[in-house]
Specification:
By secondary structure, this protein is mostly helical. The chain has a domain of 127 residues. 63% of the residues lie in helices and 7% in strands. The chain has seven helices and three strands, in the order αβααααααββ. α4 runs parallel beside α6 and α5 runs antiparallel to α6. The longest helix is centred in the last third of the chain and has 32 residues. The two termini are 17 Å apart. The N terminus is likely disordered.
Protein backbone atom coordinates (compact mmCIF):
# COMPACT_ATOMS: atom_id res chain seq x y z
CA UNK A 1 0.00 0.00 0.00
CA UNK A 2 1.24 3.48 -0.86
CA UNK A 3 2.31 5.71 2.00
CA UNK A 4 2.42 9.00 0.08
CA UNK A 5 1.40 11.04 3.10
CA UNK A 6 4.34 9.82 5.19
CA UNK A 7 6.13 12.53 7.11
CA UNK A 8 9.55 10.89 6.63
CA UNK A 9 11.96 13.00 4.64
CA UNK A 10 13.09 11.22 1.48
CA UNK A 11 16.74 10.24 1.62
CA UNK A 12 18.86 13.05 0.21
CA UNK A 13 16.00 15.46 -0.54
CA UNK A 14 15.21 18.00 2.13
CA UNK A 15 13.61 20.51 -0.27
CA UNK A 16 12.66 20.60 -3.94
CA UNK A 17 15.96 22.41 -4.56
CA UNK A 18 17.75 19.15 -3.69
CA UNK A 19 16.09 17.25 -6.57
CA UNK A 20 18.60 16.92 -9.44
CA UNK A 21 17.40 18.70 -12.59
CA UNK A 22 14.24 20.02 -10.91
CA UNK A 23 13.10 23.34 -12.40
CA UNK A 24 12.42 25.15 -9.11
CA UNK A 25 14.63 26.41 -6.31
CA UNK A 26 11.93 26.24 -3.66
CA UNK A 27 8.46 24.84 -3.01
CA UNK A 28 6.78 28.26 -3.18
CA UNK A 29 8.00 28.68 -6.78
CA UNK A 30 6.52 25.29 -7.64
CA UNK A 31 3.17 26.24 -6.11
CA UNK A 32 3.17 29.58 -7.93
CA UNK A 33 3.93 27.94 -11.29
CA UNK A 34 1.09 25.46 -10.82
CA UNK A 35 -1.26 28.26 -9.74
CA UNK A 36 -0.65 30.19 -12.97
CA UNK A 37 -0.90 26.94 -14.95
CA UNK A 38 2.55 27.04 -16.48
CA UNK A 39 3.19 23.67 -14.79
CA UNK A 40 0.85 20.79 -13.88
CA UNK A 41 1.22 18.04 -11.34
CA UNK A 42 0.28 14.64 -12.70
CA UNK A 43 -0.72 11.92 -10.28
CA UNK A 44 -0.94 8.16 -10.36
CA UNK A 45 -4.67 7.37 -10.24
CA UNK A 46 -4.24 4.37 -7.94
CA UNK A 47 -2.15 6.39 -5.50
CA UNK A 48 -4.73 9.19 -5.61
CA UNK A 49 -7.56 6.74 -4.92
CA UNK A 50 -5.68 5.22 -1.97
CA UNK A 51 -4.93 8.67 -0.58
CA UNK A 52 -8.53 9.79 -1.10
CA UNK A 53 -9.94 6.74 0.65
CA UNK A 54 -7.91 7.48 3.77
CA UNK A 55 -7.38 11.23 3.85
CA UNK A 56 -9.87 13.09 1.66
CA UNK A 57 -12.68 15.01 3.33
CA UNK A 58 -15.62 13.03 4.66
CA UNK A 59 -17.92 14.75 2.15
CA UNK A 60 -15.78 13.77 -0.85
CA UNK A 61 -15.37 10.20 0.40
CA UNK A 62 -19.14 10.13 0.77
CA UNK A 63 -19.63 11.23 -2.83
CA UNK A 64 -17.30 8.49 -4.10
CA UNK A 65 -19.10 5.90 -1.94
CA UNK A 66 -22.49 7.13 -3.23
CA UNK A 67 -21.30 6.80 -6.84
CA UNK A 68 -20.14 3.24 -6.14
CA UNK A 69 -23.45 2.40 -4.48
CA UNK A 70 -25.34 3.91 -7.42
CA UNK A 71 -23.52 1.59 -9.84
CA UNK A 72 -24.24 -1.47 -7.70
CA UNK A 73 -27.92 -0.54 -7.33
CA UNK A 74 -28.18 0.02 -11.08
CA UNK A 75 -26.79 -3.46 -11.73
CA UNK A 76 -29.23 -5.03 -9.28
CA UNK A 77 -32.09 -3.02 -10.78
CA UNK A 78 -31.27 -4.36 -14.24
CA UNK A 79 -31.49 -7.94 -12.98
CA UNK A 80 -34.77 -7.30 -11.17
CA UNK A 81 -36.19 -5.50 -14.21
CA UNK A 82 -35.21 -8.44 -16.40
CA UNK A 83 -37.44 -10.80 -14.49
CA UNK A 84 -40.27 -8.33 -13.99
CA UNK A 85 -40.48 -7.36 -17.67
CA UNK A 86 -39.27 -10.52 -19.36
CA UNK A 87 -36.77 -8.44 -21.38
CA UNK A 88 -33.75 -10.71 -21.11
CA UNK A 89 -31.53 -8.30 -23.01
CA UNK A 90 -31.36 -6.35 -19.75
CA UNK A 91 -29.11 -9.12 -18.39
CA UNK A 92 -26.42 -7.56 -20.60
CA UNK A 93 -26.43 -4.44 -18.40
CA UNK A 94 -24.06 -5.86 -15.74
CA UNK A 95 -21.40 -6.99 -18.25
CA UNK A 96 -21.77 -3.66 -20.07
CA UNK A 97 -21.18 -1.88 -16.77
CA UNK A 98 -18.12 -4.02 -16.07
CA UNK A 99 -16.57 -3.23 -19.45
CA UNK A 100 -17.44 0.48 -19.15
CA UNK A 101 -15.98 0.55 -15.63
CA UNK A 102 -12.71 -0.98 -16.80
CA UNK A 103 -12.36 1.26 -19.86
CA UNK A 104 -13.49 4.48 -18.14
CA UNK A 105 -10.60 4.60 -15.70
CA UNK A 106 -8.51 7.72 -16.44
CA UNK A 107 -5.34 5.63 -16.75
CA UNK A 108 -6.87 3.36 -19.40
CA UNK A 109 -4.90 3.30 -22.66
CA UNK A 110 -8.20 3.98 -24.45
CA UNK A 111 -9.26 6.88 -22.20
CA UNK A 112 -9.56 9.41 -25.05
CA UNK A 113 -11.79 7.14 -27.11
CA UNK A 114 -13.85 6.22 -24.06
CA UNK A 115 -14.33 9.91 -23.32
CA UNK A 116 -15.72 10.41 -26.81
CA UNK A 117 -17.91 7.32 -26.36
CA UNK A 118 -19.17 8.61 -23.02
CA UNK A 119 -20.16 11.92 -24.55
CA UNK A 120 -21.77 10.26 -27.58
CA UNK A 121 -23.71 7.85 -25.34
CA UNK A 122 -26.14 10.64 -24.42
CA UNK A 123 -27.03 11.25 -28.07
CA UNK A 124 -27.24 7.50 -28.78
CA UNK A 125 -29.48 7.02 -25.73
CA UNK A 126 -31.87 9.74 -26.88
CA UNK A 127 -31.86 8.45 -30.46
CA UNK A 128 -32.70 4.90 -29.39
CA UNK A 129 -35.34 6.06 -26.93
CA UNK A 130 -37.07 8.34 -29.44
CA UNK A 131 -37.00 5.59 -32.07
CA UNK A 132 -38.89 3.16 -29.85
CA UNK A 133 -35.98 1.02 -28.64
CA UNK A 134 -36.16 1.47 -24.85
CA UNK A 135 -34.17 -1.67 -23.94
CA UNK A 136 -31.26 -0.72 -26.21
CA UNK A 137 -31.50 2.83 -24.84
CA UNK A 138 -31.35 1.46 -21.28
CA UNK A 139 -28.23 -0.58 -22.07
CA UNK A 140 -26.51 2.50 -23.51
CA UNK A 141 -27.60 4.43 -20.42
CA UNK A 142 -25.94 1.82 -18.19
CA UNK A 143 -22.66 2.32 -20.05
CA UNK A 144 -23.01 6.11 -19.90
CA UNK A 145 -23.87 6.10 -16.20
CA UNK A 146 -20.88 3.91 -15.41
CA UNK A 147 -18.58 6.13 -17.46
CA UNK A 148 -19.81 9.27 -15.69
CA UNK A 149 -19.56 7.74 -12.20
CA UNK A 150 -16.03 6.40 -12.72
CA UNK A 151 -14.79 9.67 -14.18
CA UNK A 152 -16.40 11.71 -11.39
CA UNK A 153 -14.85 9.52 -8.69
CA UNK A 154 -11.47 9.70 -10.43
CA UNK A 155 -11.68 13.48 -10.66
CA UNK A 156 -12.51 13.80 -6.96
CA UNK A 157 -9.59 11.57 -5.94
CA UNK A 158 -7.03 13.04 -8.35
CA UNK A 159 -7.85 16.69 -7.66
CA UNK A 160 -7.82 16.13 -3.89
CA UNK A 161 -4.45 14.39 -4.08
CA UNK A 162 -3.00 17.21 -6.23
CA UNK A 163 -4.19 19.81 -3.71
CA UNK A 164 -2.63 17.81 -0.88
CA UNK A 165 0.68 17.61 -2.77
CA UNK A 166 0.63 21.39 -3.15
CA UNK A 167 -0.04 21.95 0.52
CA UNK A 168 2.73 19.78 1.99
CA UNK A 169 6.31 19.82 0.69
CA UNK A 170 7.27 16.66 2.59
CA UNK A 171 4.38 14.78 1.03
CA UNK A 172 5.29 16.11 -2.41
CA UNK A 173 8.94 15.05 -2.01
CA UNK A 174 8.00 11.57 -0.82
CA UNK A 175 5.42 11.09 -3.60
CA UNK A 176 7.76 12.45 -6.28
CA UNK A 177 10.56 10.16 -5.11
CA UNK A 178 8.22 7.15 -5.27
CA UNK A 179 7.07 8.10 -8.76
CA UNK A 180 3.41 8.61 -7.86
CA UNK A 181 3.45 12.19 -9.11
CA UNK A 182 5.13 14.04 -11.95
CA UNK A 183 5.64 17.65 -12.93
CA UNK A 184 4.92 18.86 -16.46
CA UNK A 185 5.95 22.13 -18.07
CA UNK A 186 2.89 23.12 -20.12
CA UNK A 187 4.89 25.34 -22.47
CA UNK A 188 7.75 22.98 -23.35
CA UNK A 189 5.84 19.72 -22.60
CA UNK A 190 8.84 18.44 -20.59
CA UNK A 191 7.78 15.98 -17.88
CA UNK A 192 9.88 15.66 -14.72
CA UNK A 193 9.85 12.20 -13.13
CA UNK A 194 11.00 11.47 -9.61
CA UNK A 195 12.11 7.86 -9.40
Amino acid sequence: MLQAESKERPTGWQTVADIPGFPFEDYEQLKAAVAIRSFNIGVNSLAAAEWSERLNTRFKRGIVAALSLLLMLAAVASIVATFLTGEYWLLAAAPIQAVAFYLSHPASPLHKWVTIGGAVSVAVFLNLLLNGLPIAAALVAYAGLTFAAVRAAGYIANSGFRKALLSDEEMFLNSYRKGVCTLRNNRTKVVYLGS
